[in-house]
Design goal:
Blueprint lengths: L1 E10 L2 E10 L10 E7 L4 E4 L1 H10 L2 E2 L1 H8 L19 H37 L1
Parallel strand pairs: 1-5
Antiparallel strand pairs: 1-2, 2-3, 3-4
């Protein structure tokens, strides 16, 4: 079975990868059938031959999870369409504090709504009397 996967290159703690088509039983640094491009995760620089990759997929090659992500987020010219995540991870304390603030806000809105309904009902009762 053929796989489209990453072949690790680069120095220690400074990885760079080549995107290759290779037999699934071959070791990670083994001789590839074809090199489709390269990817540097630290600088988010990628050059990728998307058309060739899609041809290999049509022939039955299976992309790994990471390569499938790169194929999905690849521009037509072969560069990575990287979008930084907007969500900020919060600590458990910060999550609890945010939940408590949201709960207090919801409770205050409910009380304001109830007070408004009571104010609307009061003039209607006076008009009937």
């Amino acid at each position: 079975m053929l796989k489209i996967r990453l072949k690790r290159m680069g120095a220690k703690k400074n990885p760079s990868y080549r995107i290759v088509v290779i037999n699934s039983t071959t070791k990670r640094e083994g001789k590839p059938i074809q090199e489709l491009g390269h990817y540097n995760p630290k600088t988010k620089v990628m050059q990728f031959d998307l058309a060739s990759a899609q041809e290999w997929v049509k022939k039955g090659a299976q992309p790994t999870e990471t390569v499938a992500y790169l194929m999905k987020n690849c521009n037509p010219d072969g560069t990575l369409n990287y979008q930084k995540k907007e969500t900020v991870k919060l600590s458990k304390k910060a999550q609890a504090k945010a939940a408590a603030e949201a709960e207090a806000k919801a409770k205050a809105e409910e009380e304001a709504k109830a007070a408004a309904e009571a104010a609307e009902a009061a003039p209607a009762e006076e008009a009937q009397a």
